[in-house]
Design goal:
Largest sheet: 5 strands, antiparallel
Helix content: 55-70%
Structural class: alpha+beta
Order of helices and strands: HEHHEEEEHH
Strand order of the largest sheet: 1-2-3-4-5
Radius of gyration: 28 Å
Number of domains: 2
């Protein structure tokens, strides 16, 4: 009878562990799932646009009470030894608040454990630097076009000012 009880206790522990891991809902995100999360969360999108694709991305169940969404997305950048969590909050029935929940450093043990889960599309430091240079060049182009637009607006304002001044002086001569 002692053996039967031990088997039942073992089964209960196994089932409890299985349901607890399923309830956590955490799983690694593939490229398509990560892109869907990037589209859904503007804070996450801005961070990835600024810093590039993460080495590992996961989705975790949020046990927090409302207004938090049902999950958060965690990005891992192994070279930078950084873990960043993003989530959304609901207001008026819509997930309108997108924010970074936390940023933590990774230990050597965590980096070693995550290194086995690196996404297939991982790029090296040189590729990241090249991508950062492309983003900086694009930003410089946008700034240059904004400066050109501001210069054209200043030229128009100066022309209007000159025209108004001429009209004023002609009115004085009458």
């Amino acid at each position: 009878m002692g053996r039967g009880v031990a088997v039942w206790v073992g089964c209960i522990v196994l089932l409890a562990g299985t349901s607890a891991s399923g309830a956590r809902g955490g799983h690694e995100l593939n490229d398509e799932e990560l892109q869907a999360e990037i589209v859904a969360n503007t804070a996450l999108a801005a961070y990835v646009a600024r810093n590039g694709e993460p080495d590992v991305a996961e989705s975790h169940f949020l046990s927090d009470t409302p207004p938090w969404d049902d999950h958060e997305v965690t990005l891992y950048y192994l070279d930078a030894r950084k873990e960043i969590g993003f989530a959304r909050a609901w207001i008026l029935g819509r997930p309108t608040i997108h924010l970074e929940r936390y940023e933590r450093p990774l230990t050597d043990a965590q980096v070693a454990a995550l290194a086995t889960h690196v996404r297939a599309t991982r790029v090296g430091p040189a590729d990241r630097a090249e991508a950062a240079a492309r983003r900086a060049e694009a930003a410089a182009g946008r700034i240059e076009s904004a400066a050109d637009a501001a210069e054209r607006a200043a030229d128009r304002a100066e022309a209007i000012s000159t025209k108004a001044e001429g009209a004023f002086h002609r009115a004085l001569l009458k």
